[in-house]
Amino acid sequence: MYHVYAMKVLVVDDSPQIVTLIKEILKRKGILHVDGAYDGKEALKKINSEEYDFCVFDYELPGVDGLTLARKAGDKFGKDKVVIISAYEDFEHNNFKVLHKPFRSQDLLDSLE
Q1: Where in the sequence is the domain holding 17, given as residue range(s)?
Q2: Fewest C-beta in 10 Å: which of 6, 76, 100, 109?
Q3: Rounded distance between C-alpha atoms, residue 57 and residue 4, angstroms
């Protein structure tokens, strides 16, 4: 497990409010280095050019969908370093952690471990 303060996290959602909310949740936990993106193409550039300890992707994104991003990030950083957030109650995935909207702050923080 990484020291929480040194973690670098990527958060991707097409809603700026969700990205801001997740950043605030992580900041309260002491994770200060959080990059945000609002569409799949922007996120893909970040995945290809940066190193992240953890990634959070919305399932539905413009440009490149969250599942495609999860696969790319999972291959590069490890599948256990990726969580997908989804509004679809029945969405589950065998390779990635899934949080359903609305999710509790603690559920997000627990997914980091």
Answers
A1: 4-111
A2: 6
A3: 19
What are the residue ranges of helices labelled H in 15-104? 16-29, 40-49, 66-77
Please write the tens of the pLDDT for every residue from 66-97. 999 999 999 999 999 999 999 888 888 888 99
CATH number of 11's domain: 3.40.50.2300
Token readout for 26 is: 């992580």
Amino acid identity, position 13: D
The C-alpha atoms of residue 7 and residue 54 are separated, in whole angstroms, by 8
Q: Is the pTM of this model over 0.90?
A: yes
Spell out the residues 6+ positions from residue 113 whose beta carbon is closer than 8 angstroms to its own.
1
* Domains: count for the chain: 1
